[in-house]
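Dear all,

This email documents one entry for the complex benchmark we are building for the journal club exercise. For each entry we list the sequence lines for every component of the assembly. Then comes the predicted three-dimensional structure of the complex as a token string, followed by one or two observations. Please use this as the template for your own entries, and keep the labels exactly as they appear.
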Amino acid sequence: MPEKNFNITIIAATLLLITVGFILPGWLTFLTISILAKALVVVGVAVLMRGGIVSFGQGLYYCIGAYAVGLGGKFLGITDLLGLMFLALVAGLVSGSLLGLLMKRYREIFFAMFSLALSMILFGVLSKSQLLGSTDGFTIVKPTILGATLSTDNANHAIYIFACLLSGIVIWLGQRYLRSPMGFAGEALRDNEVRVEYLGVAPETIIYTKYLIASVTASLGGGLMALTLGHIGPEMAYWSQSGEFIFIALLGGTSHIAAPFVGTAVFEFIRTFALELAPNAWQIILGVVLIFIIIFFPSGIWSLFSSLKEKLRSGESGSPSKTPSVDLKKGDS
Amino acid sequence: MTLLLAILIDGLIYASWLFIVAAGLTLVYGVMRILNMAHGSFYAIGAYAAASAVGWYFTLGLPAWGAFAILLLAAISAGVVAGLVVERGILRILHGRDEVIMVLVTYGILLIFEDLIKLIWGIQAYYAYQPYGMLGRSKIGGLTFVNYDLILIVVAALIAGALWFGLNRTRKGKLLRAVIHDRESAELVGINVKRLFITTFAIGAGLGALAGGLAAPAIAVNPGLGIEVIVLAFAVVVTGGLGSIEGALVGAILIGLARAAAVNLLPEIELFVIYGVMTCVLIFRPHGLFALPTARRI
Amino acid sequence: MSLSIKATRFCKHMVVSLTLSTICVAVNAASDDPLKLGLVSFYSGGASGPVGIPSRNGADVIIKAINEGTLPGSYSNSGKGAGGRPVAPVYSDEAVDSAARVTEYRNLVQRQGVDAVIGYASSGSCLAITPVAEELKTLTLLYYCGSTRIFEEGARKYVFRTMASQDVENIAAARYITSLNPKLKSISGMNQNYAWGQDSWRDFKESLDQIKPAVSVKTKQFPKIFAGQYGAELTALARSGADVVHSSFWGGDMEALILQGAPRGVFDDQTLLLTTGGTAFYSLADQIPEGTVIGARGQGDMFAPESELNTWFRNAYKKAYGENPTFPAYYMAQSVLALKAAADKAAKAKGGAPAMDEVRAAMKGIEYASPAGTIKMARANGHQAITGVGYGTFTLVDGKPSLKNVRRYSAECVNPPAGTSSSDWIKSGFLGAQCKQ
């Protein structure tokens, strides 16, 4: 897609979402914010996946972001929405840049398992701290916005608008990254690390960059989730939470920066539907959907969009520009 | 002195349990390159099958020692059957996919089994505690242990020995090792890899179920059993080196002893000692203790 | 397969309730408009067997009786329905992450339009749901979770808890164990490593410090929840040799503790004190060490005072599910009946079907009958129930499980008075406690 079109689409989509927000019922506003929050985390997971790296511990940064917001309000007395989110960003950036130094040496399943271990250690530490409510977590008061104290409804709406803007910015920046030499190098890394090295790019630098991006988006997502939930707990760092993020990344696909948003929305829909239809057997539905997608849509739901777009475009112009899509099948060796 | 003894024995008992759970997991990974999350389900299925079979056996009024045979038989056969269903039904279609994708496929299977187990066995807890107490107890250095637990150490050693013998001294085992080292070359020289996959997966599932069956007498068999155990087993095999039986053994002993030491000396850190050991090992040996050599793709 | 059965059942429900509601609208729009009630507990995962499913069964027994007007005792003349409205339950699983719990709560209230929600076994869920319930102005009854923080961290208008908080059973445990063993010198702790276990140990230890200072702590073990293997912990307990081992283990973990500890003789010369040991009472009767002290949260199950309502509940439950109701079933029943009692009270005052706000007003400070005795909503401005607590010592009589030295502590003896926080009250030495000795 040409750069200009993309910019227009993303601005239009963000504005549309913000406008729709004025007429959404309360539950849908909340659901949309939590979808955007989770999708932000998944964006990071997908960015890593495009480089062939799977983090089974993204809950670590999701939790760090949430606790940065929670602790900032509890101990530093920060109540401002932007201030708290900035805190989440800094927390993600700092912890990510430190742990990234360690993580960049790992690949494949070892990266997955190591990231899992780190997040479980955070879970353990938080579960031990009775001051922070242990596993019960603690409550976060609704934020103020630019010094103004708002009613609960208005605060929710402000968070909603902020979430839409933040998502728009992340998608825009993410697209720029993926289209940069560094972004393309990431995909090359997925195909063959040795060849990338021969080209004169250090794989560790690529992975470090990706890891940083993923830590920041995850802690932003966690911070946003904390603000909208009004309550946080260590279970955000539990491995099953990280598993859910990978699940969603696969569901949406990794071929486009916006795919995680579609994936998260579909996931939340499936889960809610499954919970209502079969409160005793909803896990069967989730499991079947997961396997079904891996077998029949190995590139995720987004592949439906892109193949549709290909069809439309091949109708109007002769040369279809193929979006590089990461097929999750194992690359040739 | 009793402290050291306590740590040693408790550590070894825990390590035995860990090893029996992890052995099947690491075997399946070594041969098939599938890090099988559904291994937790096999564990749960084994526990449920053993508990319900033992419960039924005791209603027959037959000699009590028969319960052990029933326990082993029920657990292993349930595990093998479940394993074959999973391999033939789903995994067969997906062979050769990316390793991480396979983790997710098996995660899906784990989710399905979680509810299937509930639908089959209901939500009531099952008990099979008779075999646990039947063998009596021993006093070692002033501490009392249940003989069943001590025998678990022997069983784990036997399983380790059998696996070693099977892999190193039998024809089929040698074929398996060829596949573990290089699947493509193994196929080239005419090894029927597909058939080996089926056998391996069935053995792996059987081992997972056996672990559940052996654990059943000391626990209340409840829903959610499999999910709790799987991440623990992951930690063991990753610490030891994925795909390596020796690694699983050493990883299990290391984690078992570390945990027993923590519980006896510094109970506060019990919650993260397992992940702590794993992290420490991975920092110094990024591929685990007994990692298989892997060639870099060019 | 069972999924499709569920789906058809779901569809049938839809059709039935749709036709029903059309008919009802024609007859009497006000009083037969069903009261949609969200029921949330653990219907999957490790807590489903010991907690979630018995809870749902308990709710179903009571709701059926409410709708048929067959509740006995003080409810026998209360007519059909709660405040004249039939109760229509909607179930939702608590075994999801806390973001999804809030999502599902909002779905229940804002999308499915339930009038009230009863549920939540985990304190984490309760703490997460409470601010949302206040925000959505929806009557929400917490039925099981124990954390004292729910009403101590802020005044609530829409949230009630029909169960005593968890400090109560630990205060009672300290009272019981010191009366049972006046020479108590040392204790050990065996609690799960999460908020419930940590808080239970803290409350027990602090209460004991007040009643009997200078009791020493030998070891405090905090294994991970659902760990299942307690060999090393049991060795540590055996080595430390305290007089009493306090444990707030519940469900499968508690049963595993008994199954692994009893054969090793760990509890032969240390008294095991199980604050929620009641669920193992029947299932593990021949495994529980003689002399184990058992509590059951409040006065459910074997601690339930005899009443017509209790006898009826036990029979109806046994008839429907083939087993005795365990205490989670009691507490869910207790919660649903709070709704019934408040709705009936509001209906009587109004002379017709009450609005939910009137039900909420009527619930404040209400005193009502439940299978587990009389419940008073006496604390936190009439939002927090106080109940008595029973403790007993396990013994086998002719191979049948029973309790000796049963002691019942009145609600006023072990619950902090209104307006006092739990930890302040414990530290004050239970100021103003009214205990009949």
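Observations: Confidence is low (pLDDT under 50) at residues 1-30 of chain C. The interface with chain A takes residues 2-3, 6-7, 10, 43-44, 91-93, 96-100, 102-104, 106-107, 109-111, 123-124, 127-128, 130-132, 135-136, 147, 149, 153, 193-196, 198-199, 202 of chain C (CB under 8 Å).
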